[in-house]
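hey so i finally got around to running the thing on that chain from the lab meeting. sorry it took forever, my laptop kept dying and i had to restart like 3 times. anyway pasting the input first so we r on the same page abt which one it is
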Amino acid sequence: MSRIPLPYNPKVMDLFRNPKNLGKMEDATVVAVAGNPACGDMITFYLKINEQTQVIEKAQFESYGCAANIATSSIVTEMIKGLTLEKAWIDITWKKVTDEIGGLPSVKFHCGVLAVGALKRAIRLYFDQKSIAYPSWLSKEHTFEEKQALEEEELAKTLSKRMKPEAEKQQ
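ok and heres what got predicted. didnt touch it at all, straight out
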């Protein structure tokens, strides 16, 4: 069975080959992880947030994933630098991310959802870790992107638990 390469545009390929803001951030204010067990993509987002202004001063990511996963994560880190948490929460959507990189094959839209899910999880986690009440703009309910990331994580945990007894039996 042969694999036909996906028709990625030049911007996606450039961000894949030369990702921006790639790597672990040692002094991150908040770190969030999102994953997709169906395709194997995983993202860790690191945000450095100015505590007084709630401006995202720095954003980095680590990724284990495909070209679309790396490109969407990279562009999200570029799009959010200098934004307040509120502006990032409201303005950054998976559709805007997909548009910003010039589009994705439809089978790869989930990569934009995953990148935005990681961002939104980081923002929510920031307030949770600081024990700060959610501001009015941050919904109490999880967003579509967060739900996708959470559902996928729950699936991964469930599969991991099911596979663990099998692995133990073989020892």
